[in-house]
Amino acid sequence: MYALFEKIDDTNIPNKKRVTVSRFRASSDTNPSRTSIHRPSPTNYGIKDSNSTLDYFYNDNETKIIGEHILFIYFDLQSSLNHDFIGPLRAINDYIQIYIDSVTCLDFLKSSNEIIFFISSTNDKQLIKEVHDCDAVEAIFILNSNLKLDKNRFPKSFGVYVHPEELLKSIRFAHEWFEQTQMNFFSFEHEKIFLWSQLWKEEFIKSTSSNVSSDKEKLVKTAEKYYRGNTKLLDSLDDFDCSYDRNDALQWCFSSPFPSRFLHHALSTRNTKSIDLCRFLIIDVSHVLKPSNDPKSNNQIFRGLKMTNELLEKLTTHTGKLICPKGFFSCTTSRVAALELARSPDYRPDLKPVLFKVYCDSSVPIGELSAKDMSTLIVFDVYTAFRVKWVSRGPVSIVDLEPADEDGRNLAREYRKKFKSSKIQSLLDQLLVFPKPPPRLPPIKRVPTPPKNQVSQILPKKVSPRVPDRDEIQAEKMAQRGHIDQAIAMYKNTNNPSPRVLNNIGQLYADKKGDYQAATRFYNQALRIQEEKGEDVTETLTQIAITHHNRQDYGKALYYHSQALKLRKNTNQIDQIAIANNLIGIANANWGQENLPEALIHAQEALKLNESVKYGNDLNLALNLAVLANIYHKAGYDVKALEFARRAMSILERYDKPDSLALASVLNNLAAIQVALGSISDAQINLNRALTICRKFLPEGHPKRVIMETNIKRMKEIIKYIKTVDNKNTKKS
Fold first, then answer.
1. Given this chain, do its domains 48-180 and 187-437 carry the same CATH topology?
2. Which helix (H) or strand (E) holds 663?
3. Among 18, 165, 243, 450, which residue's Cβ finds the most Cβ atoms within 10 Å?
């Protein structure tokens, strides 16, 4: 169980308008306002109108230029809503068609070879069934408060949503997931497209110069037509047009919305017209790739993916042979980040998490970029060939790769020698498989729900407690005395640190030093050892979740708490307190994501469990009540929030230490509620008391202490603001 430190800001000032999201109904005497999506004002999108469909793409006389793998079909009988909703959708995926006639829409779906996301507000179940049966439809999203769909009958349905924000969030997640885990990510040595990529690279990229100025002008003009009306992409396009420098090609091609989306789609689909437009970009990226400065270095880098069992089996049988990514191949220096991507939650439980390990020596030209997770993104040259060295199957399968670019190009040279009399373009045309959508994922395999009296047979292995060695005992003593750095150093000196030792180090970094990045690193080491030995990982998963929450990465916190909860419920011995702790963690993560209805449901479920424990659970019960107070406060129900906060305070002051961090967190959050209710003097007393506790236990610079100190400063500003208003009112009167 852990507590949150609420920040005090302008929304806490009494009589100021409060902005909240995802409100829930607390009682019949309240009527909170509801939020809605901020929609752009209607603009001219350059739409091609007809009686039943509106198309969003650029179409010239020769070919349709498309920059996305996926087609969004938006069906809505109320055509007046089309313009309101199209902006947010285009920000996710620019390729959209809108239908206002069901017959025309179904005719297209049944004949299409696209990969389609179907989005609608319809409540016609028969129409949804017909859409679901179309092979081209990959996913279905419904915005309708009066419809319920059976997931077993409609496995392509991602959900039925009440609020547009929830719908857009789900579509964005599904789109990102699909783009990262396409099934046609690699081509294999025996395939024609592998040979095409190596021949194309050998004959063109290495031998063709580029006139950047004129080539950029052609690309910009084409993209302006294609992205017309899409403000986000056009802004990025303007930045590119004004500021592009070939020395910064990596940043432009891997960080900026344009040209990265257009470029990577062109390469992955082998669309020769689009590739020709992007030729100067490909050359510029290759120009900035350099071998490592350290000739003795041998780097190990990682890439996390999910794939079908069939594709994983194909990789296994391809051991010792060549594969080629369909474009640029990027990895990360962070094994943890790659593993988190491979293990990330998704809607496809039948997909296998896979970690690619690439052994890269100093002679291989690479590019380096800073990634969002503070690791380094490593980029290989376009269509670089790799050799599959080894595949290890397991809960997370490992695929070892090494760059083999020269071997791939040698195959292209040998092929070229066989057909000396043929023109290179003719050979490429013969080899080219014309762009098709990625193969559809196999049907979702639903796992039957076991009978209630049947317990899962997958149980963690019980591990005999290991006798702590001398360094570990000394480290524990140092930690108890408050000598944190010495304790960490002694833990690190232990021989073959056990998961318990690694978790202890992680907890010291998190709780005592506020270094959540270091804590995550040690927790993940413990998790890896436990997984390899088949040991119980639930507590480690919980600690990882708490650390991610403290880093404000609420998505990962939600994922790890959910994984721990699922494992706990599948064991014979049900620990109600541990389950309640994970439910509180899920509630806190939803609170952080401002999904307050879900937060309330899980916090209330946890409260039932905590109240059912008769003895020795006072701290957990108090913090559970405090979390409920936070949820009601964020939703705007401060009177109800105050009730829960006072209940939490009464328990802590009776049973817990008078100066515990748990008490400090509740005092802080009680103060935030009191500020909102106008009880400024009471809030000031509680904040000062909380800060005194934090200064006693937390070092200067600790994130939770910083929040407290900031809240004190903010309190002074609020008091000053109120006094100023009162003085003005006094003068007026």
1. no
2. helix 661-677
3. 165
CATH 3.40.50.2300 for the 48-180 domain, yes or no: yes
Please give the structure tokens belonging to residue 152.
């077993």
Higher pLDDT: 116 or 727? It is 116
The span from the CA of 383 to the CA of 329, in Å, is: 8
What CATH fold (topology level) applies to the domain 1-22+568-733?
A: 1.25.40
CB 139 within 8 A of CB 89: no
Which of the following CATH numbers is that of domain 187-437: 2.40.50, 3.90.176, 1.10.260, 3.30.930? 3.90.176
Instruction: Evaluate whether 530 touches 536 at the Cβ level (below 8 Å).
Output: yes
Under 8 Å between Cβ of 72 and 95: yes
Q: Looking at residues 554-561, what average pLDDT do you find? A: 91
Question: Is residue 399 helix, strand or coil?
Answer: strand
149 phi and psi angles, rounded to 5 deg? -120, 140
Residue 659, pLDDT score: 60
pLDDT digits (tens, 9 = 90+) for 404-458: 999 999 998 898 888 877 788 888 888 875 544 444 434 333 333 333 333 333 4
Q: Which one, of 576, 514, 566, 558, lies nearest residue 537 by Cα?
A: 566
Domain coordinates in residue numbering, the chain:
1-22+568-733, 48-180, 187-437
Q: The dihedral of CA 366, 370, 376, 382: what is its sign?
A: negative
Distance between CA atoms of 409 and 207, rounded to whole angstroms? 14
pLDDT at residue 136 is higher than 50: yes
pLDDT (tens digit per residue) in 482-534? 888 888 888 888 877 888 999 899 989 888 888 888 999 999 999 989 888 88
Instruction: Evaluate whether 240 touches 256 at the Cβ level (below 8 Å).
Output: yes
**Cα 492 from Cα 469, distance rounded (Å):** 12
DSSP run (H or E) holding 70: strand 70-75
In whole angstroms, what is the distance from residue 60 CA to residue 55 CA?
14
pLDDT at 23 over 50: no
Look at strands 366-370 and 376-380 and give their pairing.
antiparallel
Mean pLDDT across the chain = 78
> What is the per-residue pLDDT for 317?
92
Contacts of 20 (CB under 8 A, 6+ apart): 32, 35, 596, 634, 635, 636
Contacts 24+ apart (CB under 8 A), 246-249: 246/212, 246/284, 246/287, 246/288, 247/288, 249/281, 249/284, 249/285, 249/287, 249/288
* Beta-bridge partner residues of 379: 330, 367
**Count of C-beta atoms within a 10 Å radius of residue 143:** 20
Rounded Cα–Cα distance for residues 520 and 577 (Å): 24
Find, among 661, 572, 605, the residue nearest to 4 by Cα.
661
Pairing state between β 397-403 and 352-361: parallel
Nearest to 516 by CA among 480, 546, 558, 493: 546
Percent of residues in the chain assigned helix, strand, coil, to nearest 5: 55, 15, 35
| CA neighbours closer than 13 Å in the CB half-sphere of residue 287 | 16
Q: What is the mean pLDDT of the segment spanning 276-289?
A: 91
Contact indicator for 675, 642 with CB cutoff of 8 Å: no
